[in-house]
Structure prediction request, 951 residues.
Amino acid sequence: MEKQLMTFHVNGETQEVAASPTHTLLEVLREELDLTGVKHGCELGQCGACTVLVDGSPMLSCLMLAIEAQECEITTVEGLAQGNTLHPLQQAFAERGAAQCGYCTPGFLLSGAALLAENTHPTRDEIQVALAGNLCRCTGYTKIIEAVELAAERMRSVSEAH
Amino acid sequence: MTTRIFGSGIKRREDPRLITGQTRYTDDFQLPGMVYMVVVRSPHAHARITSIDISAAKASPGVVAVFTGQDVPLPGVPCAWLVPGSDLKTPAHPVLAKDTVRYVGDGVAIVIATNRYLAQDAADLVQVSYDVLPAVVNPEDATKDGAPLVHDDVPNNIAFRWVASSGDEGVDNAFNEAAASGVVVQERIVQQRLLPTAMEPRSAVAQWDQFAEELTVYSTSQNPHIARFILSALTGVPEHKLRVIAPEVGGGFGSKIPVYPDEALTAWASMKLGVPVKWTETRSENYQVTIHGRDHIEYVEMAATNEGKITGIRGKVYAGMGAYLSTAAPGIPTILHGLMYSGAYTIPNIRCESIGVMTNTAPVDAYRGAGRPEATFLVERLVDRLAAKLNMDPVELRRKNLIPPFENGHNVAIGLTYDSGNYEGALNKLLSIVDYDGFRREQAAARQQGRLLGIGVTTYSEICGLGPSQVAGAVGFQGGLWESAIVRVSPAGKVQAMIGASPHGQGEETTFAQIISDELGFPVEDIEIVHGDTDRTPMGWGSYGSRTTPVSGAALVLAARKVKEKARAMAAHLLEASVDDIDYADGKFMVRGSPDKFKTIQDATLMATLAWNLPAGMDPGMEASQFYDPPNFAYPFGAHAAIVEIDPETGTVALQRYVAVDDCGPQINPMIVEGQIHGGIVQGVGQALCEGVVYDENGQLLTGTMMDYAMPRADMFPTFELDSTVTPSPHHPIGVKGIGETGTIASTPTIYNAVMDALRPLGIEQIEMPLTAPRVWKAIQDARAKGGA
Prediction:
């Protein structure tokens, strides 16, 4: 199929890409924009490794056509930090040892960040539910859940200080 | 020494790149001019290929080439664990099937195009005609007369028959005596097939440099040096012209040990076409083609006295091997399984017979634990069966039979010498955390109310840190099992340590830097651990079998100590003191009695590198290399407990508590150790409660996606309660043992026994794993129909 010119707002920058309208957001982010922090794990929407934020909501980029994501604000793991300041969840992942092989990590970070953007008082159940669409084979999930709790605690204390 | 970084849960040095997406896994590499390969795979489990028509595929847009088995001159991929004394047959495993396909997913052709979409489109146009043949899936049925033959040259589909025995006469006597005047318990255990499911699918990128005649292969490998060894044999490219790079690797769990046809084909295609070639499997291919784990049907029994002293254990195992013998496959249900039948117990009579069986299914090979979870499961299951039969508390029965504490070697009847253990110490710690007696009271009260509450307790010992090369040779492993390391200090005082092992998520860039920091006094930030590249690292046999820290880590320690001794000699020379008068602490070499007279290891390194004024006989530079072949395996151990409650109306198993006390010797980084245990437990619980491969009788994979194969999810688990004991390995320079597999080894029987304990009032003794709600519910209904409580 003919390529089309598409415009994306990714990680705070506007990017123009010529891509096939049949291609998924996952494919365009990885292959056209070299945002390889977005991982493919199943390409069937079952593992969560390709999770990105689209207008702040976690989306499975393997199930979304890129052309649908034009005009949206897209955040990948590469854009989660603010400049040199890591997102509190990234910081907490490192402190808790929540990554092992790292392959599922970007997806978890974005699912977790989406939860924390809406709710800095999540219960453990709410965290588990928010992360249940992301599969990890290394960590047994425990340290990931603890990292979300730690980040929530820090984000609360920051927001309460303001 | 005043400060130790060893034992500190410092943050992982791998993480900055992983949590920001600033790293490269194999599929992330894009090379100029690269083309993409797709493998056309068999939709049938067993069929003769009558014709292959590639004309339409060749004419498809963007297609560079299409090859079938007739076009590819590569020899088949080898099996590399040739277990002796087993009448082993190693049927050929061609990289592409030429006349017969033997499982769903067997490759028949490759299509290469300018992008992967065009390659996939063209692959769909390859027309293969098949004559479908009867298939066989169940490894026990496959051995029966008249079963379809997977390979014509493997009668009854039996690839090998292996026996390990402490003495057949003694074993028979033990069982005869127990049958006459003691107790014997038996069980038929199905260790269901599992999918390793590394989150990163396999991938390879090959680049042939036709002028230098050099081949570079990026590969999702746990052991790039073995991959180079095998790819060299397959492609004919000599090893010094072949570079295998395992960049960031997204988990393996054993599934990235083998060299598969796909990687070899990628390499060959790049050489044939003169351009870089990439191949990446889909998740469907990962589930169809990448190795599976377990797949045993076991007939096992245990003999004991009426007082609960175990006198014998024996088993007959039908081990499904799949359609071809994968790289390490024959060693898994034999050496790594049968030799574990003593578990943590004194058992005088032991026998294991393992029958390796070909079936029309995906090859089976090492999956986390590899043979040892299966062994631990059957031992622990039989101990609980025995306790039930004797009406004895299962913990008490374990206590009666545990090997007493030992610090430096204990021989078990099956021929292994365990290195060190204190099983009762771990058990006692576990029971006090669990409050075992308190739980039993709570359980008794709950049972009065009709609630199904249960506990499972496991005491285990495992064999890891593979292993002495002499043993490797004796058991038919077609490689060594030593490791090597180079520690190099640059003139400016930074350390590069090159290791042959290849971590892929286990955190050795951190723990190994801690080891060096502890030995040499450099801050962790100044130490880089280099791995995963055959051109940058010395030879090693890879990361599997919980061997990276026990073996590669030992090489590293000894290399660092050589550097330290050289630096000490250099410092003594600079300080005009005798080497014997130099004290060391925290990276400083001091004249004894005059601590203000010192040289840092950085000073010594700089002066040794400049070499203006060396002591007599010293070579310039500050670097050491070390090979290390371990004198024995390492034997971590521990005790685990799980508490479950079953909903009698739905059969749902709720895991309420999971407590693990593990002993891997001194812990280099407790945070990383915890992570290894957590992950292992969840994989083992997955086997007990939800995971299981299903093939239909025609060999069609019914669990071919993550919607059909039930991976454990984040909402399934309580908080794990972990603790440890510390029993150093007597033969390791810093006493450490492996911790990568203990979780999967201990947790499956722990959960299973907890569920059976909960169901005991109903008289239920066995349910096939996984213990899904429907299966448990059905067992409850059946038991009630039979008049259970």
Summary: Chain A touches chain B through 56 residues (CB under 8 Å).
